[in-house]
Amino acid sequence: MYEMLGICLALAALLAVNAVASALAALAWRAMRQRASHMRADARARLLFTLRILPPALAAVFVFALVVPAYVLMEPPHTQEVVGLKLFLFAAVSAGGVLLALWRVAGTWRATRRFEREWMSRAEPVSVEGMATPAYKIRHRFPVIAVVGVLRPRLFIASQIFEELTPEEFSAALAHERGHVEARDNLKRALLRASEDALLVAPLGRALARTWRKDSEMAADEFAASESPGAALNLASAIVKISRMIPAGARPTLPAGAHLLGEDEDGLSKRVRNLLKLASAGVRARARVRRRPLLAWGCRLSLVAAFLLAVTQTEVLALTHTAIEHVVAYLK
């Protein structure tokens, strides 16, 4: 019963902290959404990703740095406490969410591998200027130009893209995909999908993830527009041309990939308008920059060190254990 009670407590705490933090993150975004609309797309995408990924991260840290140590160190091994029905139900829902998240991650990995094997079987390596990512030309009914994969991304380009786009439009489209690669958007997309599945009780945070997907496309657009003064117009033209090449009823299916048209076809007009706005400004869009990375990492490491120092204090663990006792009594 000692092990069963500890596992149920950890799972229930994981669900509760994740749910509460996700709700607070959603409220925070609602409060700052109007102000965020004036931010650059890349800054807004980073903010959205942080708000969405922070709740499960906080829940994991809380459970494994506080709840588990407090229980292991201070709960008697031969405890007489039992797992109540409410606690068991909370733990079961949490376990279901975790298992679903792991299943989706594994499924995404398998689907991505299947896509890559299928496309690589008829792919022709090509050299594209300005792309360090391996690039391949394929024959596909959908006008694919996409970066596929998380750890080792590859660029796949449909043969009709080479035929229909001008060199300037093609270069702008490649710059858009390079923006996704540099921002590690495929990895972020996988993490967001897993964090959504881990929370079964309510659709908390899903609006944040949908908005992030839209803003990540606009951020990649702005990254491409920073290449040259005319890049914004060239990318807008490429998006319009490629959208007209889509066969009727066809939709791209990329489990772990970022393609030029994105997942939101209704948002293409908004992206084109934004690119035209950037072009009409007559200045180069500001590219993504990482300001003071050493300072940022220093702050993060300092916070981690402060947290670890706090949780190793006996008083903190004792307080956590007292809270655990109250929770167990309440959920009997």
- Main β-sheet: number of strands, strand sense, barrel status? 5 strands, mixed
Q: Can you give the mean pLDDT?
A: 80
Assign an overall shape. Answer: elongated
Number of strands: 5
Q: Indicate the multimeric state.
A: single chain
How large is the count of helical segments? 11
Proportion in β-strands: 5-15%
Structure description:
The chain has 332 residues and is mainly alpha-helical. The protein has one domain (2-330). Helices cover 67% and strands 6% of the residues. It is built from eleven helices and five strands. A five-stranded mixed β-sheet has the order 1-2-4-3-5, sandwiched between helices. A hairpin with a 5-residue loop joins β3 (145-148) and β4 (154-158). α1 packs antiparallel against α2 (41-74) and α6 (185-197) runs antiparallel to α7 (206-225). The longest helix has 36 residues, at 85-120. The chain is elongated and about 75 Å long.
